[in-house]
Write a structure and sequence with these properties.
about 40% helix, alpha/beta
Length: about 150
């Protein structure tokens, strides 16, 4: 079972910005923790972080036939990433949307996600732990679909 993990704009700056919202764990540390958990679950992961929406869309197009599901943190594209949304929908892959902070408790402009309408589910506010939860849940969903 292979899962693609997409990380949106500015997530490469984790651990260096707004730690009160996003935590002090870096993106590399999140990926290490996810890889460790994936190994225990019998999954493999492919990671892609980009500050450019087209790169994320391209990665979905490139790997959509090779992966079984997606975990995506659209970050700054959450409310405006319609081409990312369309790529996720067109892929037909089960998708868990993850947010480090609770977007529903923040500024009004952060509360709307154009991605959530095409995601299987959303996890928000658990900081890095949300990725681990997403991985566990997505594995169960994929096993149920078999």
């Amino acid at each position: 079972m292979k899962i693609l993990v997409l990380q949106g704009p500015n997530l490469n700056m984790l651990g260096k910005r707004k730690t009160n919202h996003y935590g002090a764990v870096t993106l590399e540390e999140i990926h290490e923790r996810m890889a460790e958990k994936a190994s225990a679950l019998g999954c493999t992961l492919a990671f892609c972080q980009s500050n450019y929406e087209g790169d994320l869309v391209g990665k979905i197009h490139e790997l959509r036939e090779e992966v079984d599901g997606l975990i995506v943190n659209p970050a700054g594209l959450t409310g405006v990433g319609y081409s990312l949304r369309d790529a996720i929908e067109d892929s037909g892959l089960p998708t868990i949307e993850v947010h480090l902070s609770n977007i529903h408790a923040r500024e009004e402009f952060r509360r709307h996600s154009c991605i959530s309408a095409v995601a299987t589910g959303q996890i928000a506010g658990l900081k890095w732990r949300g990725y681990i939860a997403a991985l566990e849940i997505l594995k169960e969903i994929l096993e149920d679909e078999k």
